[in-house]
Specification:
Number of helices: 9
CATH topology of the largest domain: Alpha-Beta Plaits
Number of strands: 4
CATH architecture of the largest domain: 2-Layer Sandwich
Radius of gyration: 41 Å
Strand order of the largest sheet: 2-3-1-4
Largest sheet: 4 strands, antiparallel
Structural class: alpha+beta
Helix content: 55-70%
Number of domains: 3
Shape: elongated
Amino acid sequence: MELQELWRVIRKRLKMIILITVVAVATSGILSKFVLPKQYAGTATLIVIPHNSTQSLLTSMVTGQQLVDTYAQLVDSRAVVGGVIQSLGLNVTVTHLTKMITATPLTNTDLLTVTVKAPSPSFAARVANEVALKTVAEVTLVQGQKNLEVVNPAINSPIPVGPKTKINVAIALVLGLMVSAGLAFLLEYLDDSVRSEEDVKRVFDLPLLTVIPSIGDESTVKGAKDRPKRATRSKARGQRTVRSNGRYEGRL
């Protein structure tokens, strides 16, 4: 399909494309702003403490980074998450709480962040701090020494981190344009009717000889039929007037 053909289809279905896109954007904005529940985040920061002082600086950095990556995998382990549920007395499953926890190693550092997203800022901070403490306890239990420590506990943050209205609206805009454009081309592909001069030239590739104008409504048709009768009666009355005038002048 050539560019001119693409533009013709888009121009023909432009109102539909705009309508669908506007509806998608408006729906996404309303859902993100008023319907979807707000999400708050609590973030605790941990640091890896290397204890072997005989290692070189480069070896210590590499080892520390490897430990950070390893400990990040322990944050959402069943042992840590199950211990958090038991300590806080939460009425949730391990799978549900694991989906709320995110462990992120900070690049080129010995730091590890533990983030918990929840509908309540206090709940998110409390769970994040407990996950951090349970991770430290689990690492100490496994390695026999305290290689991990909490350096920045999570605090209550009143600023929600989700839903992200601008991102959702942007996604809805792109999807709305894609879906509406695809629907426009589908309708054009299924539409084999001929309604205009352009359709005749495009479908049959023949020169157009003449165009039959469309007839108006029934009143217009009746008016067109009655015009010759009214004209005939008017002409007849004119002739009778002339004759009567002639006879009248003749008598004088």
